[in-house]
């Protein structure tokens, strides 16, 4: 999922990561049940996008995708939930200085070569500028205009893939923007 709100800036990357973690926490009962049924799923930020990945051998994968998409846009976290997310990411970014030297070098190199990647230090600086109100505004605007890229593969017929794609378009139902 791409959105006009997802930009290659450290601030946008941090807001996206906060959103994906919050959304994953909200979906935990559904995702853990799906995992018990053999479907692994993840929601994560990467390259100014939100990725929803589902894999496993089950004809229920389409139903899981529909359930995940029906939860978008998700309910906002409480201030306390936001503070927990905030402190988790703050610790992660601060601990970046304690990583092994080759990991720190790799992180720095990736942030220099790829505009969609920021160093942990840049993310920590951006995180310190984000308030609860900023996150709420980001979450509200995130799905106002979206661009969807999808890849369906596996034990799936053409009709099932087309049906899943139509469900994605229907559920996202907001204004689309052209890439």
Description:
The chain has 179 residues and is mainly alpha-helical. The protein contains eight helices and five strands. It has helices spanning 10-26, 28-36, 61-70, 79-94, 101-113, 120-127, 132-142, 158-172; strands at 2-3, 40-46, 49-55, 145-147, 175-176. Strands 1-4-5 form a three-stranded mixed β-sheet, with no helix packed on it. Helix 8 links the parallel strand 4 (145-147) and strand 5 (175-176). Helix 1 (10-26) packs across helix 6, helix 3 runs parallel beside helix 8 and helix 4 (79-94) packs antiparallel against helix 6. The longest helix is centred in the first third of the chain and has 17 residues, at 10-26. It is globular and about 50 Å long.
Summarize this structure as a short list of keywords or feature phrases.
single chain; 179 residues; mainly alpha; three-stranded mixed beta sheet; two-stranded antiparallel ribbon; 5 strands; globular
């Amino acid at each position: 999922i791409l959105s006009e709100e997802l930009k290659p800036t450290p601030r946008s990357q941090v807001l996206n990561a906060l959103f994906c973690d919050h959304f994953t926490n909200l979906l935990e009962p559904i995702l853990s049940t799906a995992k018990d049924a053999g479907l692994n799923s993840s929601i994560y930020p990467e390259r100014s996008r939100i990725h929803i990945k589902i894999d496993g051998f089950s004809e229920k994968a389409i139903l899981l995708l529909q359930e995940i998409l029906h939860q978008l846009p998700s309910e906002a976290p409480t201030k306390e939930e936001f503070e927990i997310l905030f402190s988790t990411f703050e610790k992660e970014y601060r601990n970046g200085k304690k990583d092994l030297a080759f990991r720190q070098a790799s992180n720095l190199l990736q942030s220099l070569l790829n505009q969609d990647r920021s160093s942990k230090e840049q993310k920590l600086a951006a995180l310190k500028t984000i308030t609860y109100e900023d996150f709420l505004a980001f979450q509200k605007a995130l799905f106002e205009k979206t661009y969807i890229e999808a890849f369906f593969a596996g034990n799936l017929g053409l009709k099932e893939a087309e049906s899943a794609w139509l469900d994605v378009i229907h559920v996202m139902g907001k204004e689309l923007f052209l890439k």
